[in-house]
Protein backbone atom coordinates (compact mmCIF):
# COMPACT_ATOMS: atom_id res chain seq x y z
CA UNK A 1 0.00 0.00 0.00
CA UNK A 2 2.66 2.52 0.98
CA UNK A 3 4.56 2.48 -2.28
CA UNK A 4 1.57 2.27 -4.60
CA UNK A 5 -0.53 5.03 -3.07
CA UNK A 6 1.67 7.79 -1.70
CA UNK A 7 -0.64 10.77 -2.16
CA UNK A 8 -1.47 12.82 0.91
CA UNK A 9 -5.17 12.83 0.01
CA UNK A 10 -5.46 9.01 -0.16
CA UNK A 11 -6.72 7.56 3.13
CA UNK A 12 -4.98 4.17 3.25
CA UNK A 13 -6.82 2.96 6.37
CA UNK A 14 -10.15 2.85 4.50
CA UNK A 15 -8.54 1.02 1.58
CA UNK A 16 -7.06 -1.57 3.94
CA UNK A 17 -10.37 -1.95 5.80
CA UNK A 18 -12.02 -2.69 2.43
CA UNK A 19 -9.44 -5.48 2.05
CA UNK A 20 -10.47 -6.80 5.52
CA UNK A 21 -7.30 -5.77 7.35
CA UNK A 22 -7.74 -5.38 11.11
CA UNK A 23 -6.20 -2.68 13.29
CA UNK A 24 -5.32 -1.88 16.89
CA UNK A 25 -4.52 1.41 18.62
CA UNK A 26 -0.79 2.02 19.13
CA UNK A 27 0.52 2.65 22.64
CA UNK A 28 1.63 6.19 23.34
CA UNK A 29 0.83 7.66 19.90
CA UNK A 30 -2.49 8.33 18.16
CA UNK A 31 -2.07 5.88 15.26
CA UNK A 32 -3.78 2.71 14.07
CA UNK A 33 -1.47 -0.29 13.58
CA UNK A 34 -2.15 -3.27 11.29
CA UNK A 35 -2.77 -6.53 13.19
CA UNK A 36 -0.96 -9.70 12.20
CA UNK A 37 2.16 -8.18 10.64
CA UNK A 38 5.71 -9.46 11.08
CA UNK A 39 6.81 -6.08 12.49
CA UNK A 40 5.10 -2.97 13.80
CA UNK A 41 7.09 0.05 14.96
CA UNK A 42 5.57 3.01 16.82
CA UNK A 43 7.53 6.09 15.73
CA UNK A 44 7.60 9.75 16.70
CA UNK A 45 8.24 12.22 13.87
CA UNK A 46 11.66 13.77 14.34
CA UNK A 47 12.15 15.72 11.11
CA UNK A 48 10.27 16.45 7.88
CA UNK A 49 12.22 17.67 4.83
CA UNK A 50 10.72 18.57 1.44
CA UNK A 51 12.67 17.70 -1.71
CA UNK A 52 10.71 19.10 -4.66
CA UNK A 53 7.50 17.05 -4.79
CA UNK A 54 8.73 14.46 -2.24
CA UNK A 55 8.78 14.62 1.55
CA UNK A 56 11.32 12.69 3.63
CA UNK A 57 10.16 11.77 7.12
CA UNK A 58 12.68 10.86 9.81
CA UNK A 59 11.41 9.33 13.02
CA UNK A 60 12.46 7.93 16.35
CA UNK A 61 11.30 4.37 17.05
CA UNK A 62 9.50 4.32 20.41
CA UNK A 63 8.27 0.72 20.54
CA UNK A 64 8.31 -2.39 18.34
CA UNK A 65 6.37 -5.65 18.12
CA UNK A 66 8.02 -8.45 16.12
CA UNK A 67 6.60 -11.87 15.21
CA UNK A 68 9.56 -14.04 14.22
CA UNK A 69 7.19 -16.75 12.94
CA UNK A 70 6.10 -14.53 10.05
CA UNK A 71 8.12 -13.94 6.88
CA UNK A 72 9.42 -10.40 6.43
CA UNK A 73 8.97 -8.60 3.11
CA UNK A 74 10.62 -5.59 1.54
CA UNK A 75 8.80 -3.36 -0.97
CA UNK A 76 11.06 -1.67 -3.52
CA UNK A 77 10.57 -0.44 -7.07
CA UNK A 78 7.03 -1.80 -7.31
CA UNK A 79 7.97 -5.33 -6.20
CA UNK A 80 7.94 -7.33 -2.98
CA UNK A 81 11.11 -9.15 -1.92
CA UNK A 82 11.66 -11.81 0.72
CA UNK A 83 14.12 -11.04 3.50
CA UNK A 84 16.08 -14.11 4.54
CA UNK A 85 19.22 -14.83 6.51
CA UNK A 86 22.35 -15.44 4.42
CA UNK A 87 24.61 -18.24 5.57
CA UNK A 88 28.22 -17.30 6.20
CA UNK A 89 30.48 -19.10 3.67
CA UNK A 90 32.71 -21.85 5.04
CA UNK A 91 36.40 -20.91 5.48
CA UNK A 92 37.40 -23.29 2.64
CA UNK A 93 35.22 -21.47 0.09
CA UNK A 94 36.49 -17.96 0.76
UniProtKB/TrEMBL annotation:
Gene3D superfamilies, per database record: Electron Transport, Fmn-binding Protein, Chain A
Xref: Pfam families: Flavin_Reduct (PF01613)
InterPro entries linked: Flavin_Rdtase-like_dom, Split_barrel_FMN-bd
Example GO molecular function: FMN binding
Cofactor(s) needed for function: FMN
Domain Flavin reductase like: 28-82
Name of the molecule in the record: Flavin reductase like domain-containing protein
Organism: Candidatus Nitrosocosmicus arcticus
Amino acid sequence: MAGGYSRRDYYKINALKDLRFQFYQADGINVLMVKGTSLNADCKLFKEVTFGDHVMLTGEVLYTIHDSEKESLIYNNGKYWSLEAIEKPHEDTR
